[in-house]
Amino acid sequence: MTQPTTIRRVPGPQPRLPEPLRTALTLAATGVPVLPLRQGKVPFGNCHRCANNACGGRPNMKSAGPCRCPGVCHAWAAATTDPAALASPAWTAAWRRAVSVAYHPGAAGLTVVDLDNPAAIAWARETLPATRAVPTTRGEHWIYRGTMTSRNAVRDGVDIKSAMSYARYLGPGTGTMTALPDAVRALAMKEPSPARPAPHAVTVPAGAGNGLCPHRTPAYLDRGIAMAEQRITEARSAVHTTVYRTFLAVLSTHGQCGCLTDAHVVRLFAAAQAKGETLRHCTDAWTNARTRLGL
To answer: In whole angstroms, what is the distance from residue 278 CA to residue 57 CA?
Structure first.
């Protein structure tokens, strides 16, 4: 009879993980992508290859460039659920200097309404449906299920953090998390410029159907996004290539007319991540597709 294998511990004290890393690993195990924040509640700076947007990232680290960095880089785009990456030497060095943990709400399917003062909290209690609330230094984070475009200063003391953004993790909070309401989505809608009012229809050259831009038809766009999600989901091999080509096809059809929103991008990224792609790979593929099309 085969004897069971005995696991022996190496004698001596075991290295203690930094407290922020322990919190991060717990969150990552639940599917929430995390990253460390340094003093000032800001992400760590880009690596030397990406410094000053040399890799193609846009200012203020709102978008990741085409490089694949081994460490913490590109702010929200660095967020990951991979425990091996989080505990790697490059990341561990950052965790030892970190003062808190942040997460990417959009990649976790969440939206955070950041209420920065008592007046904003009072407004939310009168205007928005109740959901999970997390106390912050000066106010509260209200967390909803669902993703949307992120936007700061939607009203006095109120920011929206979801797609392409990060929020500090300040504890589990209290209350039951509810679905993202239209009242919150409406906060991020920009008013049309008086000099360039948003048209109800966009005309195209003669011969293109009924003369209306088909991308402005919700069913047309939704069908295109759904087909793209299906193409990624059904990939049996060459997933990297399939994701890139699918992103390229979506952008070639919808990238010029302004139809795509962050919510659509989040759907595509989610489909790719479900096939094992990392957030960084998704961002690389999206950026490279935009570059190829000159967008």
So the answer is: 18
Per-residue model confidence (pLDDT) at position 218: 67
Q: Which amino acid, one-letter code, is at 279? A: L
Claim: this prediction has a pTM higher than 0.70:
no
| 223: three-class secondary structure by DSSP | helix
- Which residues 6+ apart lie within 8 Å of 281 measured at CB? 68, 240, 243, 272
Q: Are 152 and 114 spatial neighbours (Cβ–Cβ below 8 Å)?
A: no
Which residues contact residue 181 at a Cβ distance below 8 angstroms, ignoring those fewer than 6 apart? Answer: 128, 129, 144
Integer Cα distance of 277 and 246 in angstroms: 14
Cα 152 to the center of its chain, rounded Å: 15
267 versus 1: the higher-pLDDT residue is 267
Structure tokens at 240: 């990297």
Give Cβ neighbours of residue 99 (< 8 Å, ≥ 6 apart). 20, 37, 38, 39, 41
CA distance 89 to 251: 37
Please identify which residue in the block is written with the tokens 């912050």.
136
Are the beta carbons of 46 and 24 closer than 8 angstroms? no
